[in-house]
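[INFO] parsing input record for non-specific serine/threonine protein kinase
[DEBUG] input buffer:
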Amino acid sequence: MLHTVDMAQLAVGDVFDDRYRIDHPIARGGMSTVYRCVDLRLGRAVAAKVLDEKYLSDPVFRQRFRREARAMAQLTHPNLVNVYDFGSDGDHLFLVMELITGGTLRELIAERGPMPPHAAAAVMRSVLTGLSVAHAAGLVHRDIKPDNVLISADHRVKLADFGLVRAVNAATATNAQIVGTVAYLSPEQVDGSDITTASDVYSAGIVLFELLTGTTPFAGDTALAHAYQRLDEVVPAPSSRIAGVPPLIDALVATATAQEPADRFADAGEFLAALDDVAAELALPAFTVPVPTNSAANRAAAVPTDITDLMGPATGFIDPAPIDDTAVLGTETRMDTPRVLPAEPPLAEVAGPAPVPDVIPSSLPSSLPPEPEPDTPAPVSNRSRVGLIVWLTVVVIITIAVAVGAWWFGSGRYGEIPQVLGMDRVQAVSTVEQAGFAAATRIVYSDDVPADAIAGTEPNGGERLVRGDEVTVLVSQGRPTIPAAAGMDILEFQQVASERTLTISTGEPVYSSDVDEGRIARTEPAEGEAVPIGSTVTVHMSRGPEPVQVPDVVGLSLADAEAKLSALDLTVAQVEREYRSGAKADEVLGVTPSVGVTVNRGGEVTLQVSSALAVPDVSGMDLDAATAALEQAGFSVDRTRRNNSEVRSSPSTVIGTSPTAGTMVRPDDTSIDLVLPGRVTVPDVTGSTVREARAALANAGFEVNASERDDARVVTRQRPAAGDDARVESTVRLTLR
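[DEBUG] output buffer:
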């Protein structure tokens, strides 16, 4: 029979959660032991991290562990170790993950030592890409270190162990302990400050330092002394430990490991963008991360066991051969040094049911004593016959029950997942339910299946699964399309792109008059274009508006110059007035910056403008109106004079100015003389009363020879006659009746 699990003492062949069979131990750390396991339900190899039983008694830890594990299980990315399952069984919590058969970054550093900048950048690019996905989802790792960076057999770098350290923090917070790996702790993890995504950035910066130099920056006689060093000292430049590190790499490490979180990159996305910029600036070549050759995972994968077959004989359960328990798990080591477990010796393959021997074994006696002759049976009574029938009936019922039970607990409880490719959603769900499974649906991207068609199931069609378990029907939404990106922050776009299975790379920045500098201007492929799953989208960040040259506006009026500058998004910040002989009023005399100088759009310029004032033309206006117009233009009326050679209908009509209209004058010499007519056309007042005639003639600038006692008398004749012109203020003689 299969071993039932005693989680306090796990051994090869044990099954926990009725699903995962332990195949071989891989490594042990201070928190957990990692086993290579077989998923009996899906028939695949997985890695199971079984946490130490000391965490079970803390309900805060258990709750946080489940929450963090659930959050990580929802994240899928090529640079993250996939979490398949989690739960508890007996005395332990467990986490079931993707099995990585390559090794850890710690093992690679041990094999190869310090890495050149281009190799270190290649490793960190994958680490930061995976970490940025988690940061965008609101998760903080809290234990970034080479031991948690795995390298798969296909050279892919993956980040593992999200959520575990955060859960441990909750479980140990009351013990005044520093949780995490001392060499990679951020200052805030040591002094108890708030832990944010910038804390992971610090730890990642230490990992980059170690990749470049082969060592971590701090040391101490005790773990506590080692931890507290980072509160007082800054991380040294990698170039101070090893030759060949460019200053830009030193600066990258310095920013990532700044003591104050506000001085670091805010999260892994910012760190990744800076790393890409530095790599582009230094023209670092591409690099394929090698797989460790002497890793615990490789050694464990090479060990054959007697339980690698997923199913035993159809006639019953597997009864494995005795397991050599002499390879006992050692005591736990420090949290920051995972202990590699010794490989177990090869074991015999599982044997099937033993065949029935054809001959009697020689160890038995060659002859047996003769059996005694049976007595003659007594006649069977009716009572004994009834009892026999009852007994036989019970035996048959028990036999049937045993057979049915064996069928149910053997193959009967399992059903085969139907193939639903080509069906519509309703038909596929119905088919799954009719096969005895609970059906759920999930929208997925597919390169081959058109939108709204069924892309398959999870688990796959044809696999066997316990009836009643959930089967997810995968509904295709076709290939992913490039999401809208213009104006977005790169981290915001990265999260949207990752939800569509897309990754991003940074292209050359471009000028854009519509998008602010530092935000996405455009993408390649363009927005809305359908691309294969997992495609890379090249993001071009905005450099802001394209620079322009200051145009030639000298000689233009101020209004025309402002319009010309505004068309280039340039603003007149200041107007400097100066008088220059011969220059017109408001004529532009110069510009700063000078004509032809390149400036940013949206910039400001200063104009030198003529301060000369042009005497306005007020001819034909009434004296009061002309005076008001001159004052509004910045002039003052000094005096008025009459020109006796000019005749007008009104004595107050302005016929000219001195200086004349259009003359340019200095702004400090604005006195104007107004010229009025010296002679006026005499109005016709005959037939009017003296009172009426006096008023009309006075309005025309004349006096009369009649007194007020004659006001009621009528004018019969006047001299000068009506229509003649006479000097202003002269007397018109009236003849009265």
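[INFO] The domain at 416-476 is CATH 3.30.10.20 (Trypsin Inhibitor V; Chain A).
[INFO] shutting down worker
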